[in-house]
Automatic annotation (TrEMBL):
Pfam family, one: SBF
Family: Belongs to the arsenical resistance-3 (ACR3) (TC 2.A.59) family.
Protein name: ACR3 family arsenite transporter
Gene3D superfamilies from the UniProt entry: 1.20.1530.20
Transmembrane segments: 40-60, 66-84, 96-118, 124-142, 154-174, 194-214, 226-246, 258-278
Length: 349
């Protein structure tokens, strides 16, 4: 997912719209950089197109069946960008791993425990907010952190660990928060399926393809071309998710509006906690920014299939989760401009 450094004002940002529409017309590295630099625009175009599709085709809810296959491919091409050697190296950075786990699985759950007290008593609303806020992002957070001058390669190498830990701990945290104390809302099956089909299978396939690429020029060329896929794959997932959920959004609009203040509060508090924890662990500025990005960015796309498996989830639960995605994409635009400045301020001190 990573290209050369891309920041506002870079040459890639000045590339015309036509190469963006047809990135394969550019050299491979330039095409990847162009997609990453324009990813927010691409995501919002996908969301807008999905909304139009849902309006014109009310049966778009049938696209729900494509969410898991699209997610599996998105995670596969994301994991494919993680050299297995870099993955092993990431585990040697124990300070970074410790800060990352502390921020996402100790500090953030405490924040969520406080924020859900401001939500209505409806268990589905609380469940949706808790599910999405307890799960750290493992896909587009890497590129956003890159744009925000963080150590994105280190964060990318940690994505499999983050995904595995959140799948294991999410049911535990929901029980501790007494959101699912009766066990009637959540089932173990979807979590086991997610571990197998969204984590183990894509990761194993990515590792296998990397091994083949080192021996076969043809496979290596395919792996290089798949380096263009993370942003388009994420856009496709967003399109499918929004198109499938949007026809039902009207019935859950009140709930969506009620959760927005909580998501905004989280977007403010979480990155600050991530930054402070990282600095407390003695991490350098770039790595600290990575922890801040990770603490602030949530895994709504991967959590949604788990939510859809909840009996009686639609339309409320998907609407609550998709609303977080909308708030988050706007927040990321602020982060990539603000975080580098905060880092310089702290360095000066």
């Amino acid at each position: 997912m990573l290209g050369s450094a891309i920041f506002p004002g870079s040459t890639c940002v000045r590339i015309s719209v036509m190469p963006l529409l047809n990135p394969l017309s550019l050299p491979m590295t330039d095409a990847r950089d162009c997609l990453e630099a324009h990813q927010v625009l691409i995501y919002f175009i996908a969301i807008g197109a999905a909304a139009l599709c849902a309006f014109a085709w009310p049966s778009a809810t049938r696209l729900e069946q494509l969410v898991n296959p699209a997610l599996a491919f998105m995670l596969f091409v994301t994991f494919l960008q993680v050299p297995m050697a870099a993955l092993r190296q990431a585990f040697t950075r124990m300070q970074f791993v410790g800060a990352l786990l502390c921020a996402n699985f100790i500090a953030v759950p405490l924040v969520v425990a406080g924020l859900i007290q401001f939500l209505p008593e409806d268990p589905l609303i609380r469940l949706g907010v808790a599910m999405v806020l307890l799960a750290p992002c493992i896909d587009y957070v890497v590129t956003f952190s890159h744009l925000g001058r963080a150590d994105a390669k280190l964060l990318l190498a940690s994505t499999p660990l983050l995904l595995i830990v959140q799948m294991v701990l999410l049911p535990v945290y929901l029980e501790l928060l007494q959101i699912d104390a009766s066990g009637e809302l959540m089932r173990l099956g979807p979590f086991v399926d997610a571990l197998i089909w969204l984590i183990a299978a894509p990761l194993a396939l990515a590792a296998l393809l990397q091994k083949w690429a080192s021996r076969s020029p043809a496979i290596n060329r395919m792996v290089v071309r798949l380096g263009l896929a993370p942003v388009p794959a994420t856009a496709v997932v967003l399109f499918i998710v929004v198109a499938a959920v949007m026809p039902q959004m009207g019935q859950a609009m009140d709930a969506a509006m009620q959760v927005i203040p909580v998501y905004v509060a989280f977007a403010v508090v979480a990155p600050m906690l991530g930054w402070w924890i990282a600095r407390g662990f003695g991490l350098e500025v770039a790595a600290s920014r990575s922890v801040a990005f990770s603490a602030a960015t949530r895994n709504s796309l991967v959590v949604l299939p788990l939510a859809l498996a909840v009996p009686g989830a639609a339309p409320l639960l998907p609407a609550v989760i998709v609303t977080q995605t909308m708030v988050e994409l706007v927040s990321e635009l602020i982060y990539i401009r603000l975080f580098p400045k905060i880092g310089r301020t702290n360095d000066a001190r």
